[in-house]
Amino acid sequence: MENFILHIFLIVFLSGVFLLGSGEKNSSSEGTAKEERKPVLLEDVPGTAAFIDGAEVAVIGFFQDSEKNEVSEFLTMVENMPDVPFGICTNSQVLSHYNITRNTISLFRMVDNKRQDLEIEDSNKIDIAKLSRFVRMNELRWVTEYNPMTAVGLFNSAVQTHLLLFSDKTSPLHTERINKYREAAVAFQGKVLFILVDISVKDNDRVLSYFHLTKSQLPALAAYYTADEEQDVLPLDEVSLDRIKDFCNAFLERKEGKKNPKPEDKLFREEL
Ligand SMILES: *[C@@H]1O[C@H](CO)[C@@H](O)[C@H](O)[C@H]1NC(C)=O
Ligand SMILES: *[C@@H]1O[C@H](CO)[C@@H](O)[C@H](O)[C@H]1NC(C)=O
């Protein structure tokens, strides 16, 4: 039996996801000046709310006790992940506003309006690899690129309808496709997670074959419902906003129809 979730977990284990986090250690090589990157210091509730609202994904270290090991690990992670906005907060009013009861790393994301917490129970068990893994798994964006890390986060989201765009990142048309796709993603906030599958990545062939697509049919869209694995595909010659929206709406309506499978009943009642 082919099963997408099984697939995902297989891929996760094959890729040794539990080791990947440590790969972050040397990714900050692009800067010119060797200035240390620091988290934004958050000192009041409005400033913290603005920081969260200002990014697709924002990560805040809420620390009641700043002497603990996790604080220095957190600061190292901030230096090594230049693509993620980080804040740090020790202000007791802000901590209580966000219901913090122990040192916690919180990730806030827009795409499904979700806050994901990593509460630190045992400081000795926390290292940069664990912290990085928490961020990499949960950093779902308007358009999330599919990989073994994000696959876990995608399946943990309460949003069960996923849309996949199969596109080759090295194609000259890719940027325009992604711009359209992203625009559609914003319109489906909280209803559909938009995923990019880069078909120039060899490992992603498995995802392609799961949807019974061949490379000659690409680019293509695939809709997927995690609860029952229902799927639908649409090969495209051109990625347009209307086609994305129509395809998504049709799939959503189909799923909604199955959840409330008796439209006749409603009609009947209205006639009474
Ligand atoms: C990080 O990169 C630098 C320069 O590219 C290299 O000298 C250093 O050994 C690397 N450190 C680790 C931990 O891989
Ligand atoms: C804190 O918890 C209360 C009670 O559960 C909840 O109503 C409130 O929204 C929470 N605050 C935040 C910022 O999540």
From TrEMBL:
Cellular component, GO, one term: endoplasmic reticulum
Gene3D superfamilies membership: Glutaredoxin
Superkingdom assignment: Eukaryota
One GO BP: response to endoplasmic reticulum stress
Protein source organism: Python bivittatus (Burmese python)
Keywords annotated in UniProt: Signal
Signal peptide (from-to): 1-23
Protein name, per record: Endoplasmic reticulum resident protein 27 isoform X1
The family this protein is said to belong to: Belongs to the protein disulfide isomerase family.
CDD domains per record: PDI_b'_family, PDI_b_family
